[in-house]
Amino acid sequence: MKKCIFLDRDGVLNTDTKYYTYLPEDVVLIDGVAVALKRLKEAGYLLIVITNQAGIAKKEYGPAEVRAVHELLQHMSGTVLDDLYFSSHHPEHSSRSLRRKPDSLMIEKAIAKHGIDPTQSWMIGDKISDVQAGRKAGVRTIFTGKKGAGEDFGDFQAQDLREAADFILRNQC
């Protein structure tokens, strides 16, 4: 079975300063991301993006824009990303879905498709919903976001993907 790093997109791979990042000209790779991804890939991890894209449900953009941003991130990061899963749902603008984080269906589908061992895998995200989705899927979690009182911050907290990658690589099974 394979090991995997599941990655939230906005705020982990690229800056999350816009209302929604769906235009190529708004994509800015966070410092150190390309190097961190390369190191994880060289250590044998699959790299799979797991992202909520509520802007689709709100009719602000479509799946083609999500895929275009993914292709740009793929290019900017050295073509190391193995797959993309995104939820186009939002509870206030479309039907509820188990695909949308904090539920774990996107991760579970990736585990089944790619033959991933959850016990050797991680979910890295900057939202509590990322941690919750990872936990539901049985993978370890790393939180890179801002901390609030009384919230669950995952198995480890890191400033960014670079620090998360350092931690994972030092603590491999």
TrEMBL record:
Major site of localization recorded for this protein: cytoplasm
Cofactor(s) essential for the protein: Mg(2+); Zn(2+)
Enzyme class, UniProt record, top EC level: hydrolase
Gene Ontology biological process terms, A to Z: carbohydrate metabolic process
Site (Contributes to substrate recognition): R100
Site (described: Stabilizes the phosphoryl group): T51, K101
Subcellular location: Cytoplasm
Enzyme active site: D8, D10
Family (UniProt): Belongs to the gmhB family.
Name of the featured protein: D,D-heptose 1,7-bisphosphate phosphatase
Organism: Salmonirosea aquatica
Lineage per the UniProt record: Bacteria, Pseudomonadati, Bacteroidota, Cytophagia, Cytophagales
